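Deliverable D4.2, example record:
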Amino acid sequence: NIPVQRHKSEREIVVMLADLHTGAEVTKLKVTPEFNFEILRKKLNYAAIEINKYKATKVNLIFLGDMIESFTGLNHKNTWQELEKEMFGANLVKKVVELIIEFCGKVNNITKIYAIGGNHDRGDSNNLIDYKGEIGGIIFHWLNSLLPYDVEFDFSLVNPLIDGIQYICMHGHHKEVKSPLEQNILQYGKQGVYNLLVSGHLHTLKIIKDTHNSRQ
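Output generated by the structure prediction step:
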């Protein structure tokens, strides 16, 4: 196994947050838990409490895409039926920015935020017109202006080396996530250190591949 060379005087952690789908409203479904903006806020409050329990001296937050449910309300023909009242357009963007600022204010020792766009973060209903997730870019542009630490956003992938581990982070809707792990490490990772590829999108926890020097 490749040893991870950590900072002995610091406790640095990485926190992944995926698929917030702000603006979605789920109610009275038999197998799906209820969901709305206030439930999401409570989940983030709980996450902040759990993060702070680690007493880390450095906290890196990585948002893995799908910050919103829908900017237009028309990602699919019936998407508007699953939106909370007035949770679309500019109002939705303002709500997400305020929510993340509130969340970050409760997390101790944030050093940097990384973020990528998801398929729900589109500014247009047609994914051929906006395949990047432009609304994600707008959200994190404003967060970079308003928060006291650096915010790095990319439409498809971020790959920071943090505390001896090479992270390769993507949302999971682009073709790269289906490439072999070794190919992604060769293209986006780093040889000689432990590589961890993480994606969201599927709303589940699953180890796809696990080796002595990498995991997806």
